[in-house]
Write a structure and sequence with these properties.
Mean pLDDT: 91
Strand order of the largest sheet: 2-1-3-14-6
CATH architecture of the largest domain: 3-Layer(aba) Sandwich
CATH superfamily of the largest domain: Periplasmic binding protein-like II
CATH class of the largest domain: Alpha Beta
Oligomer: single chain
Length: 442
């Protein structure tokens, strides 16, 4: 979701890099590859769709049961980070790629640079009104549209209502209040902390940075711009959490560990700013705390502000060479907006819908017993409408790994998180240049 727009010729040049010259538009033939989309017997158009999320196959079956003109052939692959993306890239080069593929927002710029997706802005324009600005921007790179949004990861404040009552706290409206309450709780209970900082979760940090107005990547007519190490909003977030960790009022802890889940369950931690999908993580890993957790809007940097970060989400992207984009987009939009399809994805995959109609799905309105019968998705519905724009870069696999390593080293050695950001910026610029991209450090 670039804040600045590059012109078509720049993006075309990036896609046609000598390094990537083996990536070409796909021809027809080859086991339902990108050539599909043409009329089949009886006038039916077949569209092949690769993905891995639970519920996708069921949604495709629902579509096929209710549509005669288009038939979707869903093929399950391993998740992108475990080889799914590599499989798609290889299929594009071989000429037997699918028409549609599940692609995380953070990976979409990489697909653009690799020449593995195609611009469908004109054909997709009719569907844009069905999505919020942040969701639609998530399928754009350099002003061009490459697919349809499926889900989002709006963030909010998870908090222990019992501990907040015990220590006389209220859900914090600002980060200034959050810091003050971190001091207050730590003074009252030397064994407890208000919250935790996860140095190994760059996606969480990106969401926090977005809320503060942060920008890591951008584009202009000259090429890519990387500002991860110089962006004021990102530095604000880094310095804020650094201060809390250094004072010892917030704990530094690896994400997704048994120790973290134990602390979320036994009351060592009283709050956690996190995305919508973290609700299921809590239910599964802190079951004994059922009825004690609640959800409130995210604290703001300025009192009265309404800005929220996003952590997670994926698209249904149109793969390079797809011959019938109209049919592909028809299904992709249907899967993200149809009430039955959305209900399936909410139930099976635990998604939070990207479409505006999807946020009103009945399944999201149900009170949650785990959260004290609070209808928690009401909070996330409000948050999704306040999601701040944020742009990803074309080397996020390496950038996220470098950020994890640099933050971990900084915390372990009591170094500066802002220094780690500068280190990662340098490595990211080098990685992008190695792909033949024109890059400047912001």
């Amino acid at each position: 979701m670039a804040k600045t727009r590059i012109r078509t010729r720049l993006l075309a040049a990036a896609v046609a890099l000598p390094l990537l010259s083996g990536v070409a538009a796909c021809s027809s033939g080859g086991d339902g590859g990108s050539g599909d989309g043409g009329p089949k017997a009886g006038g039916t158009t077949e569209v092949t769709f690769w993905g891995w999320a639970p519920g996708y196959e069921e949604a495709a079956a629902q579509f096929n049961a209710t549509h005669q003109d288009v038939r979707v052939k869903f093929e399950k692959i391993v998740s992108g980070s475990k080889g799914g993306y590599a499989k798609i890239f290889a299929a594009v080069k071989a000429g037997n790629a699918p028409c549609l593929a599940q692609v995380g927002y953070e990976s979409l710029p990489s697909f653009v640079v690799e020449g593995a997706v195609q611009d469908v802005g004109k054909e997709a324009a009719q569907y844009q009104p069905q999505y919020g600005e942040a969701a639609w921007n998530s399928v754009k790179v350099g002003g061009q549209v490459y697919g349809i949004p499926v889900d989002m990861g709006p963030m909010a404040l998870y908090y222990r209502s019992d501990l907040y009552a015990q220590y006389g706290l209220k859900p914090q409206a600002t980060w200034e209040e959050f810091a003050a309450d971190a001091d207050k709780l730590r003074a009252a209970n030397p064994n407890g902390y208000l919250s935790v900082f996860n140095p190994d979760d760059p996606w969480w940090f990106a969401g926090m940075s977005a809320q503060a107005g942060g920008s890591w990547f951008g584009t202009d007519t000259k090429g890519w711009k990387v500002s991860l190490g110089s962006d004021p909003g990102t530095a604000k977030v880094a310095n804020y959490w650094q201060g809390l960790v250094d004072k010892g009022v917030v704990k530094s802890e690896q994400s997704g560990t048994p120790d973290l889940y134990k602390e979320l369950q036994d009351g060592t931690l009283a709050a956690y700013p996190g995305p919508v999908w973290f609700s299921s993580i809590l239910e599964q890993n802190a079951a004994q705390a059922s009825g004690k957790w609640a959800v409130a809007p995210m604290p703001q940097w300025q009192d009265g502000a309404k800005s929220v970060g996003n952590d997670g989400g994926s698209s249904t992207a149109v793969v390079k060479g797809c011959k019938n984009t109209a049919a592909a987009l028809q299904f992709a939009n249907w899967m993200s907006t149809d009430a039955a399809a959305v209900a399936t994805l909410v139930e099976k995959a635990g998604i939070y819908p990207a479409s505006t109609s999807g946020t009103s799905a009945p399944a999201l309105a149900k009170p949650s017993a785990y959260f004290g019968n609070q209808p928690v998705f009401d909070v996330f519905k409000q948050a999704s409408a306040q999601a701040a724009p944020f742009s990803w870069g074309p080397t996020m696999t390496q950038t996220s790994s470098d950020l994890t390593d640099a933050f971990g080293a900084a915390v372990a050695s009591k170094g500066r998180l802002t220094g780690a950001l500068g280190t990662v910026q340098g490595k990211t610029v080098d990685a992008m240049k190695s792909k033949g991209l024109t890059v400047t450090a912001g």
